[in-house]
Amino acid sequence: MLRTDFAASRLLIVASLFAASVIAVPASAQPKPKPQAKPAPVASASAGQAQAMLLETAGKWQAFSSQQGRSKVCYALSKAEARLPANLKDIEGLLFVSSRPTEGVRNEISFVLNFDLKEDVEHQAIIGSERFALVAKGQNMWLKNPAEEPRMLDALRKGSGLEVKGTSKRGNPTSDKYSLAGMNQAVKRAEDACK
């Protein structure tokens, strides 16, 4: 499956998550699970779509798994805590670290910014003093060089924050800031679910 194909299926999963308000619901408002109960589906899936199951919440991150037939997807995700320009503040930016074992994909780093991005320019992810080139397709971003994913994942694990600088399709500079609090635990939980 190509990255753009996965982006479309991931976008449907994300849409169902937002519809269920899972990402924005505070822990105190979520129902308490019964002891030894299996995780409940996060949102009901439409015909032919997989259900996303919340596995764990850690800091600003959540781990999920989803399965449709033999295809299993496990991912950790976080929302942008700050966004510029201010007129984009009501549109969620998301950071994913995904694994798709049947495709041989492990810990793919991607972003869904939920607004159209300029595709013929280089965007940037900044973690401390480390910089990573990103490419965009539609509303999604990935590392320009997928071979850098292990290095970026290591920087994410060691860092405290991430800034994604991009350019909207209209040519406006944008900035999303993500907390990395809980990232290690959520990514580990997603990795374990897809072993």
Question: Overview of this structure, please?
Answer:
The protein is α+β, with helices and mostly antiparallel strands and 195 residues long. Helix content is 20%, strand content 38%. The protein contains 3 helices and 11 strands. The protein has an 11-stranded antiparallel beta sheet, with helices on both faces. A hairpin with a 5-residue loop joins β10 and β11. The protein is globular, with a radius of gyration of 16 Å. The relative contact order is 0.19.
Which labels suit this protein?
3 helices; eleven-stranded antiparallel sheet; alpha+beta; 195 residues
Task: Give a quick precis of the structure.
The protein is of the alpha+beta class and 195 residues long. It contains three helices and eleven strands, in the order H-E-E-E-E-E-E-E-E-E-H-E-E-H.
Write the layout of secondary structure elements.
Layout (H helix, E strand, L loop, with lengths): L2 H18 L30 E8 L2 E8 L2 E9 L2 E3 L9 E7 L4 E8 L10 E5 L2 E8 L2 E4 L5 H10 L2 E7 L5 E7 L3 H11 L2
